[in-house]
Amino acid sequence: MPANPKYQSVQCLRALAALSVMFFHYRYLINNQFPATGDALFGWGAYGVDLFFILSGFVICLSAERMGTGLSSGFTFMKKRAIRILPTSYILLLLTFLLTGAMSNLHYPEKMASFISAMTFSPYYADHAPFYIDDGGAYGIRWTLNYEIYFYIIFSACLLLKKPVLTLTAFFVSAMVILPLLAGQQATLSADGYAFHSARLNLLTNPVSWLFIAGVFIAKARYRVVHLPFVLRLLSLIVALAFVAFCFADLLFTGHGISGSGFPLLLLFIAVIANHDWLDAYAPRWLAFIGDISFSLYLLHTLLITGLGKHLRWTGLTNGVAGFILYSVIAIVLASLAFRFIEKPFLSREKRLLPAQ
User: Fold this and answer.
1) Model pTM greater than 0.90?
2) I want to staple 48 with a disulfide (CB 3.0 to 4.6 A). Which of 17, 277, 332, 350 is the partner?
3) Domains in the chain: how many in total?
C-alpha cells in the first residue's frame, strides 16, 4: 500500500456529503411542484453533516501523522488549518452578508447575533442542540464550523504531547462523559447533548464530537482493515451500502450524532476505507472534483435561498424540479469559481507548510 494514498474514494464521499446537504436544502423546490416528494427523496440529506465530521477526523489525523509531535508540530498544524479554513470562510461570509441585506442587518438583533457567531465561530443559544445557533438563518449552515474549529484547537494542543490520540481520547471522554456526570447529568450519546446553561459548554460537551474521534480511530486502523481478505472487505461494503439505504429509506437512526445517522454512515466509511485500494481506480473524476470544491459548495449553496434566488425569478425556472436543477447547477458553478480563485491560492500556501516527505 502506498505511503500516501490519494483516497479518491474519500473525496467522492466528501462530494456526496456536500451534495446531500445541498439537495436537502433545495428539496422544498420539488415539494412546491410535487408535495412531499422532495422530502421523500432528500429528507435524509442533512445527515451528510455527520459524514463531514467523520471525514474531518480522518483527514486531520492523516495530516498530523506527517508532522510528528511537539510545539512546532502543534503550531504548524493550527497554522495549516487556519490557512485552509479562515480565508475562504471569511470571504464567503462577507459575500453572504452583502447579498442578504448588508448593513440593513444592523436593524435585526437576531441577524446580527447570527453574523457575529459566524465571525467568531461561537454558539449563542444554550437550548438548541446540536446547533446552538439559528440554523435556519442566512449563516445557519455554519454551525458545523463551530465544532470544526473546536476540534482543531484541541487536536493541535494534543500534538504537544507524545501520545496525541490517547490525549485526544482522554480529553473528549472527560468533556463528554466525566464532566456531565460530575454535574449530575445522565451520560448520553445523543446529539441532544447536555443541559448546561452555557451555549459554549453545551457545544464543548455535545456527543456529536464522537464522530471526529471515530474518524481519527479509523485513520489509525486503516492499514489493518485494508489488509483483510478481499471477499470480507467487499461483503462489508455491500452490507454497509444496503444498511445505509435501508436506514435512510425507513428513517432509522435519525438525528445527528453517533447514536443517530452517524452510526450507519460510520459503518459505510469504514467499508469504503477498507476497499479504497480498488475503489479509487473507479472513482468518477467529476465526483472527486465536487469533493475538491465541497467546502465552498457547503458554504455557498444556501445563498440561492437567502440572497441570489430572488434575482433569478425572471427566468421562470426558480420553482419545482426546474428550480431544483437550476439552483444546484448555479451552486456548483459558484463553488467552482470560489475554489479556483479563493481556496486554491491558499491551499498552495498550506502545502508549503508540510514537512519534507
Assistant:
1) yes
2) 17
3) 1
